[in-house]
What we know:
This protein has a single domain (40-404), classed as Beta Barrel (Porin). Helix content is 1%, strand content 54%. It has one helix at residues 116-119; strands spanning 3-7, 14-15, 26-27, 31-46, 57-72, 75-82, 89-100, 103-111, 140-150, 155-162, 180-187, 201-212, 223-224, 230-232, 238-239, 241-255, 258-274, 282-299, 325-336, 352-367, 370-383, 394-404.
Amino acid sequence: MAMALAVAxxxxxxxxxxxxxxxxxxxxxxxxxxxxxxxxxxYRAFADDPGNRYANDFYLRRLRLDVTGTxxxxxxxxxxxxxxxxxxxxxxxxxxxxxxxxxxLRVGKAKVPFSLERAQPSTTNAFIETxxxxxxxxxxxxxxxxxxxxxxxxxxYDGGVFNGAPDGASLDDDTDDGKELAGRLQLTPxxxxxxxxxxxxxxxxxxxxxxxxxxxAPQLPTYKTAGQSTFLSYLATVTATGSHxxxxxxxxxxxxxxSLLGEWVQxxxxxxSTSTATPPVVTAATFTHRAYxxxxxxxxxxxxxxxxxxxxxxxxxxxxxxxxxxxxxARYDEFNADDATAAPFIDLARSATRxxxxxxxxxxxxxxKAKIVANYQYTNFTHGAAxxxxxxxxxxxxxxxxxxx
Length: 405
């Protein structure tokens, strides 16, 4: 449970030195500070892995503090450090200037507005690892954007300018003068209703940037499986130079104990490969990568499914006959790299150009603040092995204990 600390304004924020010619000046500003966070402890194992390509291990996937607050009704802030892996990475760090629900200016590091699943809090994702669409979507980046809700939440918008992160990546600084424009528009046409149509949602997002990468800072993405194994990467001779455009289209429905989400993402980017020959041979190409996912969930114990997860009617209490809430989830997703990504851009003996996954899982919500998750994800590949053969399928068994405080 988040710890709310009210910072009283009664202590002076500013006060002049008393004298006999003027009254004392006192400025008081009401402020609030909320400190919370969450821990995600995972176990990752792999079935049918005779070559020991993967390691079974326990690990902290996320260990975050979440510090939010206001300095007045018009100024808010958020800072979220992540301590997983015994190192500190700041995910969110921004300040908001708030005109009202319809208009907010956010400056700092935050999630890039683009796709629906990316916008979802990590604690309420339906699966332990996100779908293939987020492999080609930006993650956290630094910039300035405006966002808000209109018509009582029927229309939501978020758009601005950012440094420009590679596919699937987060960014803390920039290496060139180019900046990325990003935005997302979402419609929830029945948000004011109380029936099953209330959760029906449609949206689209887009980004655009002109990159000027160098060999010292090539700004190249890498693409990973649910087991966090890299299945596609570019050769050392490649840089991401030129235009980079993304588009996302999605729809979702949250009605009663059921939810359904579909998302499609395309990333189109210019690359240059410079050979080590003398004189060097420069090859330019534009690649279009696409990914999509479809997933459904059903809460077997009858509670309502939502974008913000599931709240059990009764917390885990066996003595009282209460066991929390149980949710069944299933997903199909696919990543397709451009067919032209072979040499001199990638090595088909090491990189796959297609990854197709099928995932089933069970979410057990012990309370609104604690859940146990188990996923089985089967992924097969096109290319990625010696001679350009298909890389062996990955059979990942993922489990998680999540606690929110």
